[in-house]
């Protein structure tokens, strides 16, 4: 069963990540009164890119994007998808925090080998943005760990099936709001679309990618969006559980399927809310992004942590 989960979890994450990319283009087109491309357009693009000739800038250029992809796939194995979690005993939230850093690091190594000025600017923005949201994210995760007295994300999800979602819990309410405020930065959408701003730096870190490398970068982007939303759903919306009602009347197999479906529906709802923010707000400059994240989300996350410590 664990082998099946190891195979299924990355496949589900990959398909959902590409679905998010297609859904984003479709919804944004509708908001702009356009028809837009089909939702499955990212899959068509990836197939087309793999059939094109690609130019490499060296060994580090190739291995950087592979490192980024490997880090994303590894994080997914630690994240519960419904009741599936292949590496549920592998260290929990602390390991997830460390491995999440492989994504930006791999892109930086790959882009740095290309030696393109636009790439360098995009990479510096990516690291600055990552440094900004990692501070409130760490405070948020510390609050959740303190409240549930465990670093196991699986245990945190299971506790919510008995006591209710963390987002509805008063001690963790501010932490949940803080996560929602930094979620666009994690996903790289407006108003935090500074890393790949095509109007300024010609798509930044991915400007030198072509063919299979651009396909890998697209896949990594989709996986990053899946990870950011999946972490929020697991920490604050009970994962794939719907207030524990499934376990009382269904068998294990059906419970697994329903849990995955509920989990993905929650992710879609959160993603669509983020898209509405993306459609309304203009893009921040990098210094505006830093100021915003280190004021409001960080302040809310810090106050939320203090409240959890006092209540706990």
Write the layout of secondary structure elements.
Elements: H1 2-31, H2 41-50, H3 59-78, H4 93-99, H5 102-114, H6 117-148, H7 153-163, H8 170-187, H9 198-201, H10 212-236, H11 252-280, H12 286-311
Helix pairs in contact: 1-10, 1-11, 2-10, 3-4, 3-5, 3-10, 5-6, 6-8, 6-12, 8-10, 8-12, 10-11
Question: What is the structure about, briefly put?
Answer:
With 312 residues, this protein is mainly alpha-helical.
Can you put this structure into words, describing what you see?
The chain is built from 12 helices and no strands. The protein has helices at residues 2-31, 41-50, 59-78, 93-99, 102-114, 117-148, 153-163, 170-187, 198-201, 212-236, 252-280, 286-311. The protein is an all-alpha fold. The chain has one domain (2-311). It is globular, with a radius of gyration of 19 Å. The relative contact order is 0.16.
Largest sheet: none
Could you tell me the strand content as a percent range?
under 5%
- Shape field: globular
The overall number of domains is 1
- Multimeric organization: single chain
Total helical elements: 12
Distance between the termini: 37 Å
Mean pLDDT: 89
Structural category is mainly alpha
State the order of secondary-structure elements, H for helix, E for strand: HHHHHHHHHHHH
The total strand number stands at: 0
